[in-house]
Design a protein that fits this description.
The chain is α/β, with parallel strands linked by helices. The protein contains seven helices and eleven strands. The longest helix has 24 residues. Bound molecules: 5-O-phosphono-beta-D-ribofuranosylamine.
Length: 219
């Protein structure tokens, strides 16, 4: 299945997707990795894997609408069946999101619906939650608000720093994102209105917990 991956930074999630693909565990072809920043390290990861890269620099556009239109054109030239946001740090216009409705996934470093937006690890520590984690969700017009697919929990330990917590959450991101993308690539995952269906069965609104996946679901 052709996909396009959008990044802004390090691209460790992109790397997890590339690794799963190269291991024969993920039936996708990454047609392009697109970044809004020329200095995103993920571009180097893509090049190292022989994947086509492009930069659409948001600073070169008069506003969000013009940038999103250019981005959409760049993405659509590759005819992806799925757009994967992997640390793409831009708020998207409604027009853009609607264009990819049901075929765009994002990963967020928190247990949604807790802590949408930025600085999730700092906020989790401030609020002294016992568990934190990451969530894969379909993208809708509400920022970090689309239907939830798959999450992984990470215990918060006494003395945790935001950096330490971020690193442990990131490890889990690298497990759940390839899994969710695989379901989509295999035609098993769908967004239907505000719900997610896996193997034609609706998921709970919280999505699935990675620790509770059945062997059927991971097959
Ligand atoms: C991840 O924590 C992701 O959840 C968030 O941005 C970070 C991107 O990391 N949206 P990377 O670029 O994939 O390493």
């Amino acid at each position: 299945m052709p996909i396009v991956v959008l990044i802004s930074g390090s691209g460790s999630n992109l790397q997890a997707i590339i690794d799963a693909m190269q291991a024969g565990e993920l039936p996708v072809e990454i047609r392009a990795v697109i970044s809004n920043r020329t200095d995103a390290y993920g571009l180097e990861r893509a090049r190292a894997a022989g994947i086509h890269t492009e930069v659409v620099d948001h600073r070169e556009y008069a506003g969000r609408e013009a940038f999103d239109r250019a981005l959409q054109k760049t993405i659509d030239a590759h005819e992806p069946a799925l757009v994967v946001l992997a640390g793409f740090m831009r708020i998207l216009t409604h027009e853009f999101v609607e264009h990819y409705m049901g075929r765009m996934l994002n990963i967020h470093p928190a247990l949604l619906p807790l802590f949408p937006g930025l600085n999730t690890h700092e906020r989790a520590l401030q609020e002294a939650v016992k568990q934190h984690g990451a969530t894969v969700h379909f993208v809708t017009t509400e920022v970090d608000g689309g239907p939830l697919v798959l999450s992984a929990r990470v215990p918060v330990r006494p003395g945790d720093t935001a950096e330490g917590l971020a690193a442990r959450v990131l490890e889990q991101e690298h497990r759940i994102y390839p899994q969710a993308i695989r379901w989509f690539a295999e035609g098993r995952l769908q967004m239907q209105y505000d719900r997610v269906l896996l193997d034609e069965k609706p998921l709970p609104t919280t999505g699935i917990d990675f620790a509770e996946l059945t062997t059927d679901q991971t097959r």
